[in-house]
Amino acid sequence: MTVRPIRARHGSMAAVPGLSRWWSSRSDTDRIEIYTRWSFHLTLAGLPFLVLLVTVSAYRSRGTAWDLLLAAAALTTTAACVVVAETGFRRGTVPPGPVAAAVAAGVLTVAAGVAVTEARGEDGVPNPAGPWLVGVVAAAVLVALSVVVPYRPLAALSAVAAVLAAVVSALRGVPVLAAGIVGLSILVALVFFVGAFRFSVWLLDVVREQERARGVQAQLAVAEERLRFARDLHDVMGRNLSAIAVKSQLAEQLVRRGRPEAADEVAAIGALAGSSLAEVREVVRGYRAVDLRSELAGARSVLRAAGIDCTVTGEDAQLSEEAQVVLGWVVREAVTNVLRHGSGGTCTIAVDAGDREVSLTVTNTVAGDVGAWGSGLTGLSERLAAAGGRLSAGRRDGDFVLVGEVPA
């Protein structure tokens, strides 16, 4: 016995494999648009049949020429309405030609229909086909125009069609009150159909806008991930490469002097290179953690190796995990800037933990003026802003001061 997998079906289209695959390949937005547009067009395409249905009762033909004129006018109205509606659906600019053609063809259809139905019905009995023909044609034309014409002109045209239907009824001998009811009924029907189709088009626009918003959101997510990667790579490699450069110079001098400490510096360079490689891998994976205490200890060691006297205070402060991570990045960027601008001098790193805010201040006599912030300080400022903090940098009493503040 062979067991066949049960495949998902998509309504009745499962019986048509090609159509089913095509429908399955469309997005939800495309499906909504296809359904809305084609239901719209099929409704307009039914206009000739509605015209014939309205005028077929008690039919006594006035001649083949009138019948052909009525059919041609109905088909012309349908074609013009479909062109106008399709252009509106595609949100293009509708030229005045199709709009004028739709209105003119609609008027011609009404005139021909009224003329054809003039002799229909039994003698002495008013024939109601004429006013309802006005309503059917007006509905098709106004529904097509609803996607390209503002509300007020649509309301005015609906009122004109309703008045015209009432006048046609009155001229056929229908009592004035009944003719008014016919006109009012047609007006209500026109408002309903035009409003329904206008709402459908608006809803389709909303769905399209949401689809575009999702696309933009996905692009922003990709851009943010690229920015994160570039920023993290800069932070990791900036400090570590600066430290490797300093220790390499120190090892070179020790080797030239024949000092045994050279082997220790070379080993430290290898360890820094290994840790840099590990951190780069963590950057790629997106799971890199930063510990403030480790960063402070590393900063003290690297700066002293570069001949910069480093003092750290407040390193035992109890901070939240988020504050430690963000301030750890502040230490990294600050140390990178100090090493980049030379050797000698002093550097003080102070951690001050308050009840509501934690600040980390790096003061040094080595780094130059901040000038235009580079990518490092810009990325650091963005990190602090994302955590609800802020970054400031500049000269104070001849020293360069970098201050990072985050919520406690």
Automatic annotation (TrEMBL):
Classification via InterPro entries: HATPase_C_sf (IPR036890), Sensor_HK_TwoCompSys (IPR050482), Sig_transdc_His_kin_sub3_dim/P (IPR011712)
Signal peptide, first to last residue: none
Pfam families: HisKA_3
UniProt entry keywords in alphabetical sequence: Kinase, Membrane, Transferase, Transmembrane, Transmembrane helix, Two-component regulatory system
Domain annotation Signal transduction histidine kinase subgroup 3 dimerisation and phosphoacceptor: ranges: 225-291
One CC-aspect GO term: membrane
Membrane-spanning residues: 40-59, 65-85, 97-117, 129-149, 154-171, 177-204
Gene Ontology molecular function, alphabetical: phosphorelay sensor kinase activity; protein dimerization activity
PANTHER family reported in the protein's UniProt record: NITRATE/NITRITE SENSOR PROTEIN NARX-RELATED, SENSOR HISTIDINE KINASE DESK
Protein's recorded name: Two-component system, NarL family, sensor histidine kinase DesK
Originating species: Klenkia taihuensis
